[in-house]
Amino acid sequence: MKVLKRYANRRLYDPETSKTITLEDVAEMIIAGEEIKVIDNMSGQDITPKILGQTFLKVSLGQRNEEFSNYMLSALIRETGKDISALFGRLVLGGIGLAYLTKEKMDKILQSMVALGELRLEEVKSYREDLLTHLAQRASENSEQIQEDLKKVGRELEEGGEKELAVEDLSEKIRKIAERVKETESL
């Protein structure tokens, strides 16, 4: 985990490289799969959520998609005011951030849900098992669909003499199959 510091002048600093960094740099770290923690240098408080929120705004508004940013942030605010365990489940089952969700990270999230009263201790095991079962089912469904798509492409290639397939059409089908494979791998 990369630890960053924020100084009184509101600048972020990477003690490891001895350099000042921007919110764009933070976004690049996260996209690259790094976990970060941001500490306020004056108070010693962990201000990671605040910096991640600012980073999201900076990056999403930089893409000039204000409608998406407004929608996403409003939806998150609404959902976190309700049942966080349900939101977490929907995010995971939707594949959002799944490639970076380790067993340790999931356990920490579940522990914090228990500490906040979102989840009872005796529910943690069944909650985790239900989530993993749904993920496995989804991966299996994706795998079956990939097999069907590959068979279909194979049949079309065999019939290629009778009906000419456009290379672009075949390329598009293969691209879609590759996307499904990639999605399944992240599960």
Automatic annotation (TrEMBL):
Q: Which Pfam families match?
A: PHB_acc_N (PF07879)
Q: What is this protein called?
A: Polyhydroxyalkanoate biosynthesis repressor PhaR
Organism expressing this protein natively: Leptospira hartskeerlii
* Organism domain of life: Bacteria
Residues folding into a coiled coil are 136-187
UniProt KW keywords: Coiled coil
Occurrences of domain PHA accumulation regulator DNA-binding N-terminal (ranges): 3-58
